[in-house]
Design brief:
This protein has 423 residues and is mainly β. The chain is 3% helix and 46% strand. The chain has a domain at 274-422: Sandwich (Jelly Rolls). The protein has one helix spanning 27-39, and strands spanning 51-55, 59-62, 64-69, 75-78, 81-84, 88-92, 104-108, 113-119, 126-130, 138-141, 145-150, 164-168, 173-181, 185-190, 194-199, 203-207, 223-228, 233-242, 245-250, 254-257, 263-268, 273-275, 283-286, 299-300, 309-311, 314-316, 319-323, 326-331, 336-345, 360-367, 370-374, 378-379, 385-390, 396-403, 412-422. The two termini are 48 Å apart.
Length: 423
């Protein structure tokens, strides 16, 4: 914290007053203090904070070197050594970000999700988006926007549309060609109604049809997802990483420098990880006994309601959302080594009266039909539970969610970050 020089005299009886007879600080001391306050970061005198490293074989806490990428970009450099970059899955800089509560939430063509507000732009083909975690707005080509949701915690969905569309507060869906998106609202050309100008106050969601596939990041450029503390996730190539630096180059919006105190996590997208939500299950069994009614079918990267996967304070970019009773079986490849996930009841499974008897399940993992993992009763109040199961030598893995003590009421369960680590 910077030093403050007071111009008014202190009350001799004040606790802040130096003791009688004490020598006042000299000019040299004051200059040294001011210089020190200028040179040190605003966060104070503490050394760079430790980070949590999730590695292929283990997890550990460490401090990044000032420049944490080796010259050949093959190693992650730490204060006490180095680890192969290929073994690094994720770096967590701080606790999980809170749910975004910005004006707009955007999903881009490459899977990036941004939370912020739109500013004035001189170019109708560019959105100037202000993210609270970044020092300056980013220029986003409209062609790379796939969806915009409005409202507190708005979470765009997935999938593509064939025609531009705007969903209004009244529940109407207007389809046509979007002419512009500005800070004031959206202009869309409807075949029957003509050009419509809709303010954001009347809009719930905007869907933009793709024209061209987005550019991709080469594996040699260390593809990654950088997560900010406002919940935004930016996909790109890792350019710089260190104790006090993180720069990611997005092929959609260019170079982005993320302030040190706004970093949440960095996920490397290398070939060591295969998410089960990117694979098709070979067998799906869902439903409750003695009933043909079961509307809560499993979802990829969403909970069963189509919302983001959230267990307690943790939000997961990838995973599987299910409802008891659920059984999903996936084929395993010879190079698959370990299954990992963080499991629990989604926040949408919390009852309004906080009844502990509902929103409760049991998680089970089967390998070739044999039980390899079983949790106890997991309720809505439980934090995410880590699961790790070796899968080498097996042909199939089954993720089973059984009903808990409350039968199947509010059993909205998540396999957060469900993935296979490969050789």
């Amino acid at each position: 914290m910077p030093y403050l020089l007071r111009s008014r005299p202190m009350n001799p009886g004040s606790r802040a007053c130096p003791p009688r007879g004490a020598r006042p600080p000299g000019v040299a001391s004051l200059l040294a203090a001011l210089l020190l306050a200028t040179l040190l970061p605003e966060a104070g005198f503490a050394a760079p904070a430790s980070v949590e490293l999730e590695l292929i074989e283990s997890a550990r806490t460490a401090r990044l070197a000032e420049s944490a990428l080796s010259e050949d970009r093959a190693d992650l450099l730490l204060e006490d050594g180095a680890v192969p970059i290929r073994d690094v899955l994720r770096i967590r800089f701080r606790s999980a970000p809170a749910v975004a509560r910005e004006e707009l939430s955007l999903r881009l063509a490459d899977g990036s999700r941004l939370h912020g507000s739109i500013e004035e732009s001189d170019d109708p083909d560019l959105l100037r988006l202000r993210l609270p975690a970044l020092d300056s707005p980013i220029a986003l080509p409209l062609e790379w926007v796939r969806e915009i949701g409005r409202g507190d915690g708005a979470a765009p969905g997935d999938g593509e549309v064939e025609t531009d569309a705007v969903v209004t507060e009244g529940g109407a869906t207007i389809r046509g060609v979007i002419e512009s998106i500005t800070r004031d609202g959206v202009e869309i050309e409807d075949d029957g109604l003509g050009l419509l100008q809709l303010p954001w106050a009347q809009i719930v969601r905007v869907r933009v049809a793709p024209l061209d596939p987005p550019p991709v990041v080469s594996p040699q450029d260390l593809p990654c997802f950088a997560e900010l503390d406002d919940g935004s996730r930016i996909r790109g190539a890792l350019r710089e990483l260190g104790a006090n630096r993180l720069r990611v180059e997005s092929p959609l919006v260019g170079m982005i420098s993320i302030p040190t105190d706004r970093r949440a996590s960095l996920e490397l997208l290398l070939d060591r990880v295969a998410y089960l939500s990117d694979r098709d299950p070979v067998t799906v069994e869902e439903g409750v006994p003695f009933s043909d009614y079961f509307p809560w079918t499993w979802k990829r990267d969403r909970n069963v309601l189509g919302e983001p996967l959230r267990i307690g304070r943790e939000t997961f970019r990838k995973g599987l959302g299910v409802h008891s009773r659920s059984s999903l079986t996936f084929a395993l490849d010879p190079e698959d080594r370990v299954f990992r996930a963080r499991v629990g009841i989604d926040v949408a499974g919390r009852p309004v009266d906080d009844d502990p008897r509902v929103g409760s399940v049991r998680f089970v993992v089967l390998l070739d039909g044999e039980e390899a993992y079983r949790s106890g009763d997991v309720g809505w109040a439980s934090a995410a539970i880590p699961v790790e199961v070796p899968v080498s030598g097996h042909e199939k893995i089954t993720l089973l969610v059984e009903m808990g003590i409350g039968h199947h009421v509010l059993d909205r369960a998540d396999w957060g970050d469900a993935r296979i680590l490969r050789k």
